[in-house]
Amino acid sequence: MEQWDVIVVGAGSAGCALAGRLALSGRNRILVLEAGPRDLNPWLHVPIGYGKTFYNPQLNWMYRTEKQTHLASREIYQPRGKVVGGSSAINAMVYMRGQPGDFDGWERMGNPGWGWREVLAT
Ligand SMILES: Cc1cc2nc3c(=O)[nH]c(=O)nc-3n(C[C@H](O)[C@H](O)[C@H](O)COP(=O)(O)OP(=O)(O)OC[C@H]3O[C@@H](n4cnc5c(N)ncnc54)[C@H](O)[C@@H]3O)c2cc1C
Fold first, then answer.
1. pTM of the entire structure?
2. Which three-class secondary structure string do you get for 76-93?
3. Which residues contact 111 (CB under 8 A, 6 or more apart)?
4. Which residues of 11-39 are buried (b: 16+ CB within 10 A; e: fewer)?
5. Distances from the Cα of 57 to the Cαs of 36, 53, 60, 78, in angstroms?
6. Cβ 9 under 6 angstroms from ligand 1
7. Phi and psi at residue 116, in whole multiples of 5°?
8. 12 lines ligand 1 (CB under 6 A)
9. CA 10-6-115 angle, 5° bins
10. From the alpha carbon of 79, which atom of ligand 1 is closest?
11. Helices (H), the chain
12. Cross-strand partners of 31
């Protein structure tokens, strides 16, 4: 029977980053479990593919919220990735660089290690 030091459930943004960091040390045997398939669908790899995976139940959990009192009792559609890469595989590929002042502010509020220099280094 195979043995693992760490089992990561979900190969989404956080799961992949965590497993990758743990693997870097070379000391751990890591198992990553993902409910969805591999990211072989070509629409996962182009920005416009976001529209094609939005309602694809093979790649998307397609959650709905409870009825929302403050939204006229509507249920709101909540897409989430069900595939290696998780929601980052079905997202819109929009990204931006953070503002150094924001990170330094969070550090000043009592969060050592969250300053711009430390976060940028990792
Ligand atoms: C449609 C859409 C568009 C978005 N657009 C952008 C964007 O343009 N820019 C941006 O920065 N962010 C965007 N986001 C947000 C961003 O993609 C997510 O915030 C981020 O990917 C969440 O990471 P996570 O690790 O928390 O979860 P996920 O990446 O969703 O990972 C969770 C993983 O766990 C798996 N899983 C769940 N339950 C189980 C189980 N029981 N067993 C095994 N595996 C399981 C899931 O299948 C999934 O792969 C978007 C999100 C969506 C849904």
1. 0.88
2. CEECCECCCCCHHHHCCC
3. none
4. bbeebbeebeebeeeeeeeeebebebeeb
5. 10, 8, 5, 12
6. yes
7. -55, -45
8. yes
9. 75
10. 53
11. 13-24, 49-53, 87-90, 100-108, 116-121
12. 7
Q: Output the pLDDT for position 47.
A: 85
For the chain, which residues make up each domain, given as ranges?
6-93, 94-122
Ligand 1 atom closest to Cα of residue 53? 1
In this prediction, residue 77 carries a pLDDT of 98
| Residue 78: C-alpha distances to residues 53, 54, 121 (Å) | 13, 10, 33
Q: Which long-range contacts (CB under 8 A, 24 or more apart) does 59-65 make?
A: 59/83, 59/89, 59/90, 60/90
- What tokens were used for 23? 């693997």
Q: What angle do CA 32, 17, 48 make, to 5 degrees?
A: 100
pLDDT tens, 80-110? 999 999 999 999 988 888 999 999 999 999 9
